[in-house]
Amino acid sequence: MKAAVKNSPERGIDIVKIPVPEISDDELLVEVKVSGICGSDVHVYSWSGGYDWVTPFMPVVLGHEFSGVVVRTGKNIRDVREGDRVLCRTSVTGPCGRCKACRTGRRHYCEVHRKNLTGWMKNGGFAKYYKCFEGGVIKLPDEVSFEEGAIAEPVSIGACAVDDAGLVFGDTCLITGPGTIGLLTLIMAKANGAGRCIVCGTSADAFRLEKAKELGADFTVNVEEESISDAVDRITEGQGVDIAFECSGAVSVIQEALNSVKMASGRLILEGIYSGKAELELSDALVRGSRMIKGSYSGRAAWERTLEWMAHNREGSMKCTEIITHRSSLQDAEEAFERCVRKENIKEVFVNFD
Known about the structure:
Layout: E1 2-6, E2 14-17, E3 27-36, H1 39-46, E4 60-61, E5 65-73, E6 85-88, H2 100-103, E7 129-133, E8 137-139, H3 146-165, E9 173-176, H4 180-191, E10 197-201, H5 206-214, E11 219-222, H6 228-236, E12 243-246, H7 251-259, E13 267-270, H8 283-288, E14 292-295, H9 303-312, H10 314-321, E15 324-329, H11 333-341, E16 347-352
Parallel strand pairs: 9-10, 9-12, 10-11, 12-13, 13-14, 15-16
Antiparallel strand pairs: 1-2, 1-4, 3-5, 3-7, 3-16, 5-6, 6-8
């Protein structure tokens, strides 16, 4: 079968033929139907920093946002059957349920899960077939399509960020970075009662900023024409926003986002993955300003809730699929990744693996 493989710690990806995985009695085989390119995949493709820890696991098949059909099961598999439509988790094992993290409600920090990450440490979903243990899949509700299943992970990241922010009905929100995570955070914020939403990007994000308007943004800002601080002051009449969601992954944006939230009550939620260290002024912006900074990386814990929401909020779920702008063949993976680098797409998914 064809697979998109990261062979070495340098820019690029290789399309190679590898054997269809053989499964043990405790494993199952999934035929991949839809597999999405994540921003982290783009970092690994570009080798732009922040993913050096992947090097010891190369060569590795990339891809961790995907869904498919179970086509084979080992004799010890109990709850999953051939023909089941499934979402594949970001580890081949899934949460173990026994470690301290699992027992304290933090399954996304499962000690077993974190040692078996799909598409980084173990072969992932940029191939026609994928093998994992039973805990590595979640059954898709009948109402949820394969495409929805493939974006459930980033949807859950946006949903958990909104939860982490403690969003209150009517809150004014700033979202920096109109990529997949930023736009899904916008949708989740609006779904949870946000008032005004301001989405910021660069000139290269023009297409994405237009999509933000379609998805509910009240204001969009090109930061090359107006600074984040000036735009927030103008829109909020100097009051600042209640919550800023930093989704760009640009360290240079963090300070401005922090400065843009209200004193005494404002929250900055960091969702981006950063390739370098940030230098921040904290005495006035954070301490004297009594603002809060929180990282949010808990999407995996909410997959079941996300699928429940998708199954029973069809209008909202279909709005999430509007971020899918390109559907491609795995054979053309390099072109797809280059589109990601040039920001010519929002979410690109592979739907043909032959």
